[in-house]
């Protein structure tokens, strides 16, 4: 989505134009009001005097408002001005229109609001040209005394609605031109309505119009009325301010002003990206969603790494993430969604297509790394907080996760954590963090095939075994199991260095393919191995220094793929772009390995990039270097705000404050 503004709050977001409208677009510029993976407003167009008003100012990112007028000239200035304010709350959009007469004579103002709700699933709206059948689906619209109610039903098992109310009520409600038959009901494609008001403004007088759209996704209750945009904004600002201003405050921990500003922006974004969910006992939680617009929900890998980055500063994120993931940990074998006992979920969706299993992502387990990262975060939380209570509570889930790594993950029998493509099931081809279909390639450009063992995942597994052994000794009182885990970790470390290390490059292979051939591409994944501690000290130094050479380091960050190789493409998703979170893991690893100068160099590049994006790091940037363009070049489909990018400055702060052991992993 590339709408003018994104308004985000409590798992709800609105993508609107710079002056607050919604046109019902699709593809990369999709707009609307979205709740639980569905679009609950697909049209929200304001006209004044029969025409779109002219914006004098544009909507701010917080929804504080914009200023609109009808068209005018120098000699005939606009007779009135519309001050428009919007905000989103959980399940709701609220809007306040204040009309101000600019004239010394009475003025009549006619406002119209074109509204519709198509209830489209997010997967329908993405620009991948897929179509999904919806047998038995029906949309209707019903006029109400103070607005309109939109309903969507599909068969007997799915229903959603959106209600639009206005104060004062509209003077007239009619079907949009060419849609519906005027009887108050519409069928597919005919539900759009036009609400009309006539305001008689006295000389220099004012009038107010308040609008509320309440979304009720399938299986949920109608949300409470949110109040005015000002009320919502004040609540949101208080909630965000409490999160950002809590101690420790990054500004108190570094003299580097630019890094402090990036940290504060990151914390503000993380506050608004928190979404409500529940834990194993039904307790209410707030976890960092992956990002907007497409990923406003619980994602295993994203939420875990985000929480790890933020752990020294906001440990509650880690606790809620661990509990939320424990609540949806795999319990059975379900090949349709890759569920296996003990496996940590990749993503959780609530939309219609997931409900009817037309996409596998309702509760999808296609992630090879979320399970070891769950174990890493569990031990890191206990170490950082000094409180083993959560680790004690989640011992059964931790044991199940370890069992999955050895049984189904592939680690048993001197193996590695591996995955195979789920494309045939409609899922992911690649199931590591570089999850685009073409991400794992040989240096000649050929795609790696078969059961893939990607390098960084083996590092995560090693770290998970070491950390879980520590919990077994210190929290669970099981030294025998701890010893077995330590032996398995040592064996994995020895095998990894034998099978992945490429002496001709002094660098590890990106992966082993299904025939155990080394995928010889030079990729940023190797930097994650510095963080996990699976390499020998001399190997860490070689890798860390190699990552700072110009083909990897652009001046803004380390590319996902070193330039000059056949697969390299600076505008690809994972074959040459620059990901802040990827760099954050690498910087933590550089610091842990004693490469403080290299860590500072990359951190300065990322902070420079943050400054070029208003202190908000995007999900991903194009791979062009400073020698090609003085400012970071945006990646065209980047999510922003995005959780692990928002948490990246916090990871940089940790690495620069604690040059050794910054990741929580001692040198081994």
Short summary:
With 668 residues, this protein is of the alpha+beta class. Helix 5 crosses helix 7 (370-385), helix 12 crosses helix 14 and helix 14 packs parallel to helix 17. A hairpin with a 2-residue loop joins strand 11 and strand 12 (147-154).
Alpha-carbon distance between the two ends: 45 Å
What is the helix tally?
17
> How would you classify the helix and strand content by structural class?
alpha+beta
What's the arrangement of strands in the largest beta sheet? 6-7-8-9-16-13-12-11
Strands, count: 25
Strand proportion, as a percent range, falls in: 15-25%
- Overall geometric form: globular
Poorly predicted parts: 179-188, 661-668
What is the alpha-carbon Rg in Å?
26 Å
| Overall helicity | 25-40%
Largest sheet: 8 strands, antiparallel
- Mean pLDDT, to the nearest integer, reads 94
Protein name: Glycogen debranching N-terminal domain-containing protein
Domain Putative glycogen debranching enzyme N-terminal: 8-211
Region (Disordered): 159-191
Domain Mannosylglycerate hydrolase MGH1-like glycoside hydrolase: 450-610
Overall description:
- With 668 residues, the protein is of the alpha+beta class.
- The chain contains 17 helices and 25 strands.
- The strands form 7 sheets. It has an 8-stranded antiparallel sheet with strand order 6-7-8-9-16-13-12-11, with helices on one face. A 4-stranded antiparallel sheet has the order 1-2-3-4, with no helix packed on it. It has a 4-stranded antiparallel sheet with strand order 5-10-15-14, with no helix packed on it.
- A hairpin with a 2-residue loop joins strand 3 and strand 4.
- Helix 4 crosses helix 17, helix 10 runs parallel beside helix 12 and helix 14 runs parallel beside helix 17.
- The C terminus is likely disordered.
- It comes from Streptosporangium vulgare.
- InterPro entries: 6-hairpin_glycosidase_sf (IPR008928), 6hp_glycosidase-like_sf (IPR012341), GDE_N_bis (IPR032856), MGH1-like_GH (IPR054491).
């Amino acid at each position: 989505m590339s709408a003018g503004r994104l308004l985000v709050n409590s798992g709800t977001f609105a993508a609107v134009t710079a002056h607050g409208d919604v046109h019902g677009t699709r593809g990369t510029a999709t707009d609307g009001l979205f709740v639980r993976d569905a679009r609950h407003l697909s049209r929200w167009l304001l006209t004044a005097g029969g025409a779109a008003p002219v914006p004098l100012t544009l909507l701010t990112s917080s929804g504080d408002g914009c200023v609109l007028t009808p068209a005018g000239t120098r000699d005939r200035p606009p007779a009135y001005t519309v001050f428009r304010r919007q905000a989103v709350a959980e399940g709701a959009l609220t809007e306040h229109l204040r009309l101000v007469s600019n004239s010394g004579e009475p003025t009549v103002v006619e406002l119209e609001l074109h509204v519709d709700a198509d209830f489209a699933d997010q997967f329908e709206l993405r620009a991948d040209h897929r179509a999904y059948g919806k047998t038995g689906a029906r949309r209707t619209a019903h006029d109400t005394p103070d607005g309109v109610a939109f309903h969507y039903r599909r068969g007997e098992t799915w229903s959603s609605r959106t209600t639009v109310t206005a104060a004062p009520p509209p003077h007239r409600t009619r079907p949009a031109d060419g849609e519906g038959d005027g009887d108050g009901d519409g069928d597919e494609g005919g539900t759009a309505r036009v609400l009309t008001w006539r305001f008689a403004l006295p000389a220099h007088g004012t009038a107010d119009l308040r609008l509320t759209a309440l979304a009720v996704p399938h299986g949920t209750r109608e949300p409470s009325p949110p109040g005015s945009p000002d009320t919502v904004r004040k609540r949101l600002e208080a909630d965000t301010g409490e999160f950002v201003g809590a101690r420790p405050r990054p500004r108190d921990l570094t003299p580097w002003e630019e890094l402090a500003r990036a940290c504060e922006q990151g914390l503000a974004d993380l506050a608004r990206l928190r979404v409500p969910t529940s834990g194993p006992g039904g307790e209410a939680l707030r976890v960092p969603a992956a990002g907007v617009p497409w990923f406003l929900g619980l994602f295993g890998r994203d939420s875990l790494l985000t929480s790890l980055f933020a752990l020294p500063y906001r440990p509650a994120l880690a606790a809620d993430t661990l509990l939320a993931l424990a609540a949806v940990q795999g319990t059975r074998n379900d090949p349709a969604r890759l569920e296996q006992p003990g496996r940590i979920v990749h993503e959780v969706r609530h939309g219609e297509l997931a409900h009817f299993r037309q996409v596998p992502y309702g509760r999808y387990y296609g992630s090879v790394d979320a399970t070891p990262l769950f174990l890493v975060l569990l031990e890191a939380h206990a170490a950082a907080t000094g409180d083993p209570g959560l680790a004690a509570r989640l011992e059964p889930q931790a044991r199940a996760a370890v069992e999955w790594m050895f049984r189904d993950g592939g680690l048993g029998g001197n193996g590695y954590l591996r995955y195979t493509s789920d494309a045939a099931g409609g899922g992911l081809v690649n199931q590591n963090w570089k999850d685009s279909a073409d991400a794992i390639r040989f240096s000649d450009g050929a795609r790696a095939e078969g059961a893939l063992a990607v390098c960084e995942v083996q590092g995560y597994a090693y770290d998970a075994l070491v950390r879980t052994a520590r919990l077994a000794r210190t929290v669970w009182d099981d030294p025998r199991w701890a010893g077995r885990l330590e032996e398995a970790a040592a064996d994995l470390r020895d095998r990894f260095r034998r099978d992945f290390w490429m002496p001709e490059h002094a660098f590890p292979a990106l992966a082993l393919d299904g025939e155990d051939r080394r995928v010889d591409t030079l990729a940023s994944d190797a930097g994650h191995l510095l963080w996990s501690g699976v390499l020998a000290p001399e190997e860490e130094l070689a890798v860390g220094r190699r990552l700072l050479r110009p083909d990897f380091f652009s001046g803004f960050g380390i590319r996902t793929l070193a330039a000059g190789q056949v697969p390299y493409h600076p505008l690809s998703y994972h074959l040459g772009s620059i990901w802040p979170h990827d760099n954050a893991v690498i910087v933590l690893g550089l610091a842990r390995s004693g490469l403080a100068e290299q860590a500072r160099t990359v951190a300065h590049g990322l902070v420079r990039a943050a400054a070029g994006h208003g202190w908000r790091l995007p999900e991903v940037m194009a791979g062009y270097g400073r020698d090609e363009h003085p400012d970071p070049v945006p990646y065209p489909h980047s999510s922003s705000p995005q959780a692990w990018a928002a948490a990246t400055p916090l990871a940089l702060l940790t690495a620069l404050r604690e040059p050794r052991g910054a990741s929580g992993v001692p040198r081994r």
